[in-house]
Design brief:
Length: about 450
């Protein structure tokens, strides 16, 4: 039996990665899960000439640690797709979920609300930029974007969405057409996706925005203030304010997708700083590990939905799920009480310092970083090499993902609880992994 996780553990590997237990589970998974997901195995094996790149199977996580089915301990620099901002299983969230589970697991969406949902809506309004105090809750990031698209349609009477290259907003059908990250995600469904979407370059000049919006077709401009999956790209200074100004001049609303970058991860509560959109989408960290999202908007914009006529125009069975709402209440409280933006800023500086000291280029903010890797000779590593570095790091007990349309950066979004010792160990493992890959 391995020792209980502390959350601050360094990697401890007791089998090869993936180990026999993980491989066994992956065989079961491959038999029963849609191959679009499990075929990673065959695809990776074909690409790398090795079947042992199967994913390892998670069984436990705490703080910045993940443990797999074989008892191997990892340090997670992804925070599980940027969800575990407060660490995996943060104590305040676990306590809130336990208490909620003792009283009410499920309420009735739009028909009969419950207390946790009402308290959460109030807490979200208090934390949101001024004026964005009315929300539509969802379960996934895509749900929140979907709500933003529908809201803009109702409020402006226009269906067009202006989005940006490299933007990623989820893969559900209603939002799929807005992603500008990988055409391959949209192509098979092009005929049934939202057709009225135009993409401009992220950070494009004001004239291009002006020209596109001049058509009067767009009700919504959808933008990630700090692009995540598209390569951890920071918007040029002043650009977000320009987007809002030009959109408003042309009668379009602006939605900021802060699903990944919001709630303190970038060192600020909201990545867009003091630029306020009409709609603000949050998710990921919001539920502290439970699925929950929200699309926040101004009263004026949300009023475009009109009052419920008895049957809600937009709802779902699990709308405002009590467990998720209780968890999110604890998350928001912890973010404020423990100054999580400040911690992300400070820990991000430590992580950035460790990487730049080794000659790597680091972009992003706080604990949302994209690293362009350099060899000791100053050569820039490319996408395939970055993928190989990710696998080499995994074999050393560190969980990382690439980002960017060509996997051009290593994406680091660790939990804010990651310790200096874990960061040092990661930086050392990165040196070894790069040396291994370019050898
Ligand atoms: C910026 C951004 N928006 C939206 C989404 C979609 O969220 P979900 O996968 O929960 O639907 C993601 C997911 O990675 C994201 O990073």
């Amino acid at each position: 039996m391995p020792a209980p996780l502390t959350g601050a553990d360094l990697p401890q590997l007791v089998t090869e990665i993936p180990g026999p237990a993980s491989r066994g589970w992956i065989d079961v998974l491959a038999a029963h899960e849609c191959p679009a997901i499990t075929s990673r195995r065959a695809r990776r094996a074909a690409a790398m000439g090795a079947a042992h790149d199967d994913p390892f199977v998670w069984s436990e996580a705490l703080g910045a640690n993940v443990r797999d089915a074989d008892g191997n301990t990892f340090v997670d620099l992804t925070a599980g797709f940027a969800v575990a901002l407060l660490g995996h299983r943060p104590p305040s969230v676990v306590a809130a979920v336990r208490a909620q589970a003792d009283t009410l697991l499920h309420a009735m969406g739009d028909a009969w609300p419950d207390v946790a949902r009402i308290k959460l809506l109030e807490a979200l309004a208090a934390l949101a930029p001024a004026g964005l105090d009315v929300a539509l809750l969802g379960l996934s990031g895509a749900d929140a974007i979907d709500a933003a698209i529908k809201t803009a349609r109702l409020a402006t009477g226009r269906s067009g969405v202006l989005a940006f290259d490299g933007g990623y907003h989820g893969l559900a059908l209603g939002v799929l057409g807005t992603q500008g990250y990988k055409a391959a995600f949209t192509d098979p469904f092009r005929d049934i996706t939202h057709g009225a979407v135009t993409h401009l370059p992220f950070g494009c000049d004001a004239d291009a925005l002006d020209a596109a919006l001049d058509s009067g077709a767009f009700g919504l401009v959808l933008v990630e203030p700090l692009q995540g999956r598209g390569g951890v790209r920071v918007a040029p200074d002043g650009w977000l304010a320009t987007v809002v100004e030009i959109a408003h001049r042309h009668g379009a609303l602006v939605a900021f997708d802060e699903i990944q970058c919001g709630l303190g991860r970038t060192g600020r509560m909201w990545a867009a700083g003091d630029v306020t959109p009409d709609l603000l989408c949050v998710g990921k960290a919001l539920g502290g590990g439970l699925p929950l999202s929200a699309c926040l908007g101004t009263r004026a914009v949300m009023d475009a939905w009109g009052a419920s006529q008895g049957e809600a125009l937009h709802t779902q069975t699990f709308l405002g799920h009590p467990l998720g709402c209780a968890a999110a209440l604890a998350v928001l409280d912890t973010i404020v009480r423990e100054d999580i933006p400040g911690r992300c800023e400070a820990v991000g500086a430590t992580l950035t310092g460790a990487l730049t000291a080794r000659g790597h280029h680091v972009q992003g903010r706080g604990l949302m970083l994209g690293v362009t890797l350099k060899s000791t000779h100053g050569l820039t590593l490319g996408g395939m090499q970055n993928l190989a570095v990710c696998r080499a790091l995994q074999r050393r007990g560190f969980i990382v993902l690439p980002a960017g349309m060509q996997a051009e950066v290593l994406c680091l979004t660790p939990p804010s609880t990651i310790t200096p010792a874990q960061i040092d160990a990661f930086a050392a493992a990165l040196d070894q992994s790069i040396a291994e890959v370019i050898a």
